[in-house]
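For the sake of transparency, this paper describes our internal protein records without simplification. Because each token names a local backbone shape, the row as a whole describes the fold. One such record is reproduced below, unchanged from the form in which we store it.
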Amino acid sequence: MSEEMLVLYGSETGNARELAEYLYRECIFRDISVRLCEMNQISVQELQSHNIALFVCSTTGDGEEPKNMKMFWRQLLSRQLTSKTFSQLYFSVLGLGDSSYAKFNYVAKRLFRRLEGLGGRPLHSLGLSDEQHPEGSDYQSYVWMGDLFEKLGTHLQKPLTRTYRMLPPRYTFTITKTEISEADKKCEDIRDSNKEEVEKRDCRGDQVVSKDNPWKSVMVGNRRVTSEEHFQDVRLVEFDVSGSGITYKPGDVVWIYPRNSDEDVAEAANLLNLNLDSNLEFTSESDIPAFVPKSLTIRDLLTDYLDIASIPSRLFFEICSNFAKDELEKEKFEEFISLLGREELYSYVSRPRRTILEVLADFHSVRANLDIRYLFDFVPFIRPRGFSIASAQCVNKDRLEICMAVVRYKTIMKKERIGLCSNYLANLPLNCPVKLFVEQGSFKFPTDRPIIMVGPGTGCAPFRSLIQSRANTQQQLILFFGCRGEHRDYFFKKEWEEISNLQVITAFSRDQDRKIYVQHRIVEYGELIWSALTRGAVFCVAGNSKNMPFQVKDALITVSRVHGKLTQTDAEKYVETLVRNRLYQTETW
């Protein structure tokens, strides 16, 4: 039996992987022999040779496991496995989820039950991290980890004293400084421009477009669809995907790689004491994301690949605390990374949405003594941002559209907070390249039954795709659309008025004294909804994940109780049955 403990993760966007890496480091600091890897890299046979395994996984789509967990999960479902398969295994599971979804942490719950059913023994209770938690999603994860190491110490019958030490940098690389004259810079600009033009036309042969091999599309449309006087800037953004081989259907998601602003890139170079024209070359091959070139300029690295304007993680403060020479700064960083300092860290970082650059600017001794070899340990790579596709390929096979709110808001910080991707696209000139790829979404839209759609604001995006693809057919389509005002942010009024099989029921929250939201309209049109449900309708909800999904679900329970003549308990059971049978689907963000 191997004495090595396993930390296994299933991660779609990178959050579960980050937490697994943090857990792995914490094991090392407690002198535990440990290995970190994706779940797909482990077989059932190998897992049977280990005594302890810790699992960290997210839930994607409508209760689906991440791609790098699918093969492992299929192995666990084999009928050849018995209730004694993992009789030697002690395990623990941490799930990352969002309670606005009906299938909150569904994958973690199933994994826990399956491992237990195969004879595995839980070290302690299932951990369920929630994106909606008021103190941030990490709060429950770190509480879970604290409990875990107490249980592990008891199980191993030895104290697990934490002894922090600097681990080797994640990647090794060299930086070569280059001096470029003004004349050379002009030539470089011309070469870059020509290269970019070639890349825009590049069809990438027979390579499949994916996260690691995104398509360099061209943005050909960027139209504001809210009135100029309305506070919220919403854009209908259009991309040319001709020659890409990209196909999509209603409900699918496009993932877009944003770029940092020139202002932030210049500030990062200044804070990190880096020459933008220098060249960085990786000298280690291990685990470098496939979409990152092995050799590139510092300017390209900071512009296209490192998320320098992101909110720093707890790991950022842990690593950077090693470089604080000022005693007050070191004391503050150590407070941030302690369990007792969680609220302090949340107040300093998460609540005001303070960025990595702003933290470095606040702590002069940290930035003055930073070891650049750890650059990739404390600054994460930029992750692609997902948008529901708002167009139908049957209308134009070479075009893809998204409906995007430009994110800008104020906190206690002097500088306005902005969304990286939405502002990148909003400020991008037409005919500029944008890297993207498409993946299947969680919505499944049937063709043989009515579809009830609830999509306030930009939540209407996946439904616009569906409506375009099923326009003027025999299928009954009912859309509940909510916004502030008919003349302010009713994005597609004229377009939808021309579709014969579509009934749009609007909820304008600010056009009258009493605020009216989509959940109010659902109750008001309960008879229409119940009639459609009795004919097998699918009920789909998309949009903001704060309160709307819960309120819509409560409204549907009310409709079921009133028009279905059910008791409150039976109405709740009825809606849960719709969820289990995928007749009630959600996609919230």
User: Anything to note?
Assistant: Confidence is low (pLDDT under 50) at residues 193-205.
